[in-house]
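New to this. Look over this protein:
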Amino acid sequence: MDIIIAENLKRIREKHSLTQEALAESLGVPELAVYKWEAGRLPVDYKMLVKIADFYDVPVDTLLEDTSDAGRKSSAADKVSFTCRICGGNLVYNYTGGNCKCANCGNKWAIGEMYPKYARVMATINEAGRILNSKTELAAADEARLLYRQASSECSKFNDAISPEIVKICTEGQANAEKLGIYCRGKHFFENKAFKSALKELEKVPGFRDADEMIKRCKKQK
């Protein structure tokens, strides 16, 4: 589990002067679960994060933000290099794929491997992408959007040439997550034969998955 979430869960609980036992009772979960969340030993799924945020009356983003001094400062020793560590050749970056390749010797590295400070950012982006590509649910769209927002927020703290490019990927990811949410609403209406409402939603995301096919079928029902 992301250590940032674990730290934030503990910090906000202590801020409200709650024991782990009291919080567990309020959320309807075992006290051991709260202990493991805060120790970073047990993942908190998206629905539970929403429930916790609602309990504290804060945005879900509050549980995802890196508020530590280390999170706000990038290491001066962790500068980005644009040359191959093996032969010194120029690196060509594939930000969408999350990797870079030497134009001279052909060696290839994941961005998170090449630059450890980006490891967590790239892992978050990969998880968001996996959710977008494998799930068709409103909750999944919301979860992916939050993950991209978290990655973008963390990445923007780094003052180098790579950061803006990865922020762009996060911005595109949030846009795709928004499209997935619209698509899910449209598909829900379509499956319940509310074709007028389905058409209104699906026409906002033409070309997304099978939206065009459902749009055609909706129009035939007029």
Q: What stands out?
A: The chain has three domains: 1-69, 78-114, 119-222. Confidence is low (pLDDT under 50) at residues 69-79.
